[in-house]
Amino acid sequence: MVTVPVSGNTLMSSALPVFVKSSLRYWQKHRWQVLLMLIGMALGVAVVFAVEIANASAKRAFALSLDAVTGRTTHQIVGGSAGVDEQLYTHLRTEAGFRRSAPIVEGEIAIGSESFQLLGVDLFAEPMFRDDSTGSNSVAGRGRASLQLLDSGSALLARTTVQRLGLKIGDHFSVSVAGRDATLHLIDVIGGSRQAAFESLIMVDVSTAQQLLDRNGRLSRIDLVIEDPSELDSIRGLFPSHEIIESQTRNASLKQMTQAFHTNLLAMSLLALLVGAFLIYNTVTLSVLQRRQMFGALRVAGVTRRELFTAILLEATVFAVVGTLLGLLLGLILGNSLLVLVTRTINDLYFTLDVRRIDVSLVSVAKALALGLGAAVIAAVAPALEAAGSAPATVLQRSSIEKQARGMVPLLALVGTALILCGALIVWISSSSLWAGFAALLFIVVGYSLLIPKALMFAAGLVSGSSGWLRRFVGPMGHYPVRSLTASLSRTSVAIAALVVAVSATAGVGIMINSFRYSVIDWLGQTLTSDIYIRAAESQREAIPDALKQDIAALDGVTGLRVARGTEIEASGSPVRLLALQFSGNGNNGFSFRKTNGQGHWQRFRSGDGIFVSEPFAWKTGLTTGDRVRLSTDRGIVDFTIEGVVTDYSAGQGLIIINYASYQRYWTDNAITSIGLQLQPDVDIERFKPGLRDVLARYPMEFSLRSNREIREVSLDIFDRTFAITHVLRLLTVGVAFVGILSALLALALERRQEFAVLRSIGLTPSELRNLLFVQSGLMGLVAGLLSLPLGLVMSKLLVSIINVRSFGWTMDFQVPAGVLLQTLLLAVAAALIAGIYPSAMLSRLPPAQALRNQ
Amino acid sequence: MSKSYLTASGSETILRGVSFDVGQSERVALIGASGCGKSTLLNVIAGIDTIDSGVVTVAGQDLTGLDEKQRTLYRRRHIGFVYQSFNLIQTLTAFENVQLPLQLNRFPTEQITDLAQAMLERVGLADRATAFPDQLSGGEQQRVAIARAMVHSPSLVLADEHTGNLDAETGRQMMDLFSELAEQCGQTVLMVTHSRAVADTADRILQIVDGRIEHGDSARVW
Questions:
Q1: Which of A18, A674, A691, A792 is 20 to 30 A distant from A114 in Cα terms?
Q2: Domain residue ranges of chain A, discontinuous segments joined by +
């Protein structure tokens, strides 16, 4: 009796070595294909990994710094814009006997071009709060050395910061605070395992911080360690006019501030990975197509579908591992550059953060690995199924996969339409979730790319189908490039889809940035109602003397003055910008209202208890007109009514606007941070400035002088800087798509080598063949460009009306400039044409005899 | 003429001083064992391949002095090529495949349509004009290939085992069609074949042995 082994495992073990040997030889012959696939995969993973580590590094640095500053603090006593009177601290410690308290004075400080957070602490209260604040030089440990901190101008820096800046203990170094220069004395360094947490801090004594920040007698806050809830009640009794907030709640809301920004970057990086996945799908499909004879032979020889599927998937996994590892290395390099941009944007939009070192955690590596491998394996599943799913005879047929691909077109179109509808439904159902917004975007992008084969066939039908009117005017050679696109639908449609996703993302983000920029320009035009602005450092508690205001008003050409006080306060558990403005006359005074609290909102605003809030503030707090906001003023906690929600793009953390007279009533602060000068229309601003400078020079205060035009320019510079990282990510995504289209064109060209040889043999010259291939590349680009326009418009609408609002609370006018649309079209065509140069040149040089001999 | 190829094991001479003349409207069959250089000879005459030494003159034109582009233009005008594996452009219909040489030779648009239509009628495929190659049988594909090779009235039609992929009956029909068309158009034909039946339709048979033309009794190759 003869037993025939039928187990799949037995066959697998015998088929696999053959498969591996054959695959190795195949890939050796197609090195360029491997190279392009690895580049595409590596680029996709690199973008995701770079964004991930840049985000994680920024977040971690901020969290470390925040946690280091918070220490064991459970609660914080905060005051109004002027902070807390230091007498209250003395009262708390001495008369009330609450010793678990520490005074803090914080502010921004710079060493050269690097920004740091200045932290003024009480050396004696510190050990109870922050073990590491004096690190290896803790009070208990170093005694005398640390006592030097009490000396005016003494400072501590993290050891790594000291090394980076090339300082040594005992050095004096220059700092800049609110435009004023000062010198600090480095008395020691903060070392130890947690020194990273102090890298963006300069630690000084409370009194030094007060001097530097010009806040004599004032504290930013008082830190508390509350062990018993009853203690909290008694402290509240002692400080009825101050807000006592829970530290963890405040930290959480601070960390949350940048979350939307990080999420947006992550989403953009995932787009690059999606494009990379298209590329992997294309390459694996191609490799399957090119080896159909081998697979057919294996199937005829008895290799099962499952074995073939597993083998192809294993092969893709090997490439995915290599591509992903390369991507991680590339991402590490890219991450360093992105970190600079991420940090700069956070500084521009939110708070001072200086992150120098990229922080690669195992979690970040695991995420990138999982995404890279996952995307590659998922992308390889379809072609592997295609090859394994065919009967042995059809695997051998050249056109079987193309026929299958064509057969799949209606189904893909149906699924695509369903996904788009799902996306629309998600937008419609969800009202505030950012993730829902991104999910909708993903559904629409993926759904749209599934419609591309159908659109491609429709477009080709228009041009060269029997009913196409163009057919009458174009001969067979004219049809050739069009027909080639649809004849190799399984590859061309994926390459075009990759390009469409990348280019439409570029268009979508471009339109969004353009709309945003237009809205900012419009807003600046409305808001900047004065011709020249004089600014004083915000930390100044000194009021701009009335005499100065009178002197300025007396200058020739001045028609009016408008004073303002800008400061930072706590509202709803997180820092918010407060702007007290002096209003004159009627009208909206430069405000663009998104919502008002019915008739009389201006009167209520002027009367004292009404405030205006910015859109981001309203969005983040969930408050709207008519709602009340509790603010901690110098006269105690006061509830203000929101009389209007206004457009504002200046403060990412949110803005509260109050009438200047009301501000003076509730806050014991007469300081002015800016004066707006309105000039007669015929006054030449540049000629007016010297006279104004002379007047300012008579007063012993620091001022900066900027014209309306200069402020607009600076604002737009900051705006453009903020979006620098977005531009980089857009370029990288297009880069991945470029590799994809190059890979597809090379593959198509090589696969049709014999056909081209036939064309050459019947009289097509090398230059004619080159042109033919070039036209085909351009056509792919044109189709991709045209198909990118609708998706780009939908993406931009989603970004402007959904993602931006849900991320930052900003609404903006939707502007679609023809230039961006034209750029989109040109980008797609240019990318395809550039990608087509090499394949067309290579094929036109190929001797036809060689290709014909290889038949 | 002589022709060698560089291979992994060194230089391999394919044609060794081959010399022959073919008269206008003459039909010549090239026979010989596999790898003896028959297809190379056709490629050289078509200007697809070049020779190392010697002279090739077709329709009064010396090919050896032509560069790549000139050889292509020569081929476009003077040569029609029929292959064993048909080599139709898969993305073009039968009608469009036949139109190709006319298009490349810049015939007027109306003439392109008329000539291609007439040629398809002559090969019996007028009703299959809109079919793509993969919708045609082997015999039909070869008819299209013959129509494409002859539609622009080239001086010389080259056929490389053009019945090799067809069954005996279809091959015979194809040969009859091929001979009939060549005769009607007064075209010179040079065909490579392994089939005695096909070779017998020629006016003259040339045998290649080891890269040389052997003048003598051709029967011994069969």
A1: A674
A2: 84-219, 538-701
